[in-house]
Design brief:
By secondary structure, the protein is an alpha+beta fold. Helix content is 28%, strand content 20%. The protein has 6 helices and 9 strands, in the order E-H-E-E-H-H-E-E-H-H-E-E-E-E-H. The strands form 3 sheets. The chain has a 4-stranded antiparallel sheet. It has a 3-stranded antiparallel sheet with strand order 3-6-5. A two-stranded antiparallel sheet has the order 2-7. It is globular.
């Protein structure tokens, strides 16, 4: 299946060990979300979801260069037709995300260059068996092995630069303080 037939959950290498150990991606709640349900965020962006970047990473050239070099960049693909996916803004209603929190997510995402209509969420955990895993090699995304990548993060190798923004990725800005 072509990469463009997938939506992507973007992450960094420091989270790979926990993901590998659990064998699945697990929805999480924003620390600012009040009573909302956990959401596992995906993006239609095929190169990078701007809202996944920490705010300092986007603002400061030195941090922008150092952050991905230290952790590595990875993504998990789910077929775009998966019935568990709920598009933005419907996911905010289904997950019981308060209107002010949803507006804050949009605002933070737009400041980082994201397109909120590219965001989708799933409310249930998704096993690794249903996902495609890729790593950024400095020039392009390539299929990778999760267990091997998790081991390499524990024993870092050669760092690679972050992908350039293709047009204007996760990842929804709900994790703006992550």
């Amino acid at each position: 299946m072509l990469a463009s037939n997938f939506v992507w959950h973007y992450t960094v290498g420091t989270r790979l060990s926990a993901i590998s150990d659990s064998g699945r991606l697990i929805p999480t709640r924003s620390p600012h979300a009040g009573a909302s349900l956990g959401v596992l965020w995906f993006s239609r962006q095929q190169r990078w979801e701007p809202s996944t970047a920490r705010s300092a990473w986007m603002r400061h050239q030195a941090a922008r260069a150092a952050f991905p070099l230290a952790d590595g960049l990875y993504r998990f693909g789910l077929p775009a037709s998966d019935s568990r996916l709920i598009p933005w803004p419907n996911v905010t209603r289904v997950a019981d995300i308060d209107i002010p929190e949803a507006m804050a997510m949009v605002s933070a995402g737009l400041r980082r260059g994201a397109t909120p209509t590219d965001w989708l969420g799933a409310l249930s955990a998704i096993p690794m068996s249903g996902l495609r895993f890729q790593r950024w090699n400095g020039e392009a995304w390539q299929d990778a092995d999760l267990q091997e990548a998790a081991q390499n993060v524990r024993a870092p190798g050669k760092p690679v630069p972050a992908p350039a923004r293709a047009s204007a990725h996760a990842h929804p800005a709900q994790r703006r303080n992550a």
